[in-house]
Design a protein that fits this description.
By secondary structure, this protein is mainly α. It is 73% helix and 0% strand.
Length: 123
Amino acid sequence: MRYELIMRPGLISAASYLALMTLIVYGVLDRSGGDDPWFLYLAGIVVLQVGVGFVAGRWWTLGLPLLVVLISVPAGYPPTEGGDPLPLWFELAFYALFAIPLVAAGVVARKIYDWRRDSCLAA
């Protein structure tokens, strides 16, 4: 019974993360023309990375940004005004270099939170 209670929030947060990132990839990045407020998207994506790490609190969540890269392969090329752009998955693979440490920061924050909570309850 305890195993189910531990794994359920991790799986739900991972599925929610993948659903939101798929929406961002196909609904925003694949269709944006460049006039969008990119800093708002960036702030939301950073919070999402740290949030999934904190909510799941498991080290396997570090692989989720790599799954987003795989999900984005069919998206093709983003709309641009000039030149041949790189495929969207290539850009997301580069961003995964930053997303993975952000997810790790969320996991570490959760581990510290759990450790402090357990030490306060034991006292």
